[in-house]
Specification:
Blueprint (H helix, E strand, L loop, with lengths): L10 H12 L3 H9 L5 E2 H8 L3 H13 L4 E5 L2 E5 L11 H13 L6 H24 L4 H5 L5 H16 L6 E5 L7 H5 L4 E6 L2 H13 L5 E5 L2 H4 L6 E7 L8 H11 E12 L6 H6 L8 H10 L3 E9 L5 E8 L8
Parallel strand pairs: 4-5, 4-7, 5-6, 7-8
Antiparallel strand pairs: 1-3, 2-3, 8-10, 9-10
Amino acid sequence: MTSMKAPALPVGLDALAPLYKACGDPLRLEILRVLRRDTFGVLELSQLFDVRQSGMSHHLKVLHKAGLIEPQREGNAIFYRRPLHLAPGQVGVVDSAAQQVFSTIDRIPVAGHLQEKIEDIRSQRADQSQAFFARHADQFREQQELIAAFDLYAEPTADLIRARAAQHEWQTALEIGPGEGAFLPVLAGICLRVVAVDNSADMLRKAQQTCADEKLDNVELIEGTTATLLPKNERFDLVVANMVLHHVPSPADIFLEASELMSPGGYLVISDLRRHDQDWARENCGDLWLGFEPEELNVWAGDAGLETGETLFIGLRNGFQVQVREFRKPESQTQQ
């Protein structure tokens, strides 16, 4: 009697099997849920879910094999995130299924106790960054220029902003993380009112001195973060973040909060590093993240309802590259 072979599965179905198998565990779905916008390491995820590191590593391996997460190297550390969105027309069966999974689980709010643990991890990261700037406040410019001299990215950023300002009647601007305040004269010369928010009291004191030296009487300095400003219900025509994202605990949240703080038709302008592998920047410059791929910023901006505008790349001799990015909030977008 001739043995009957089972018919081969179509390639698409064969590839879908590990994806749906990976989704058959509630903990893995929870992991995918908290990776919606955040990037976490194995130890951080173990802390979030009270799971041993070996167990968490197993779950991450299964999710990675299924294409539901991808590793992100930050120097000697490995973090995990969801895959970046693919461009229209490039989404296959597996990618489409993954996006459906993400869309479904994202409708379920993160449990309160889990959100508290996420905030604890973000606070730990913020404390690490603040401690660095407290120790090196007097050497801020020297530390930053180990990577990029201020003028190399500030001048192209200022040129882009001035070009847009000539087309609009901007009244208000917000700078996130002004540092010593070197960019504040540019904004103060364009807008009638400028707010600068920084979570480092040491850096704010230096920014205050810059305002006094430059006689900037239309600048208000606030200690805190973008989240601090949300309850004030003030909206800004322009939001700027120069070399800030790689210092903040959750870069994706900056886009969400900036969008909420922007007026319809407003602009967000960001200058920051492209992804690199120079791990010494974490120790010597207080960096939490080793730069970002442009696609990452595009995804975060899209999730925040912002449209991607002009992009400029600036190559530096020491192997770093700075990206100057422009994002716009549509006129029709409803204020939150």
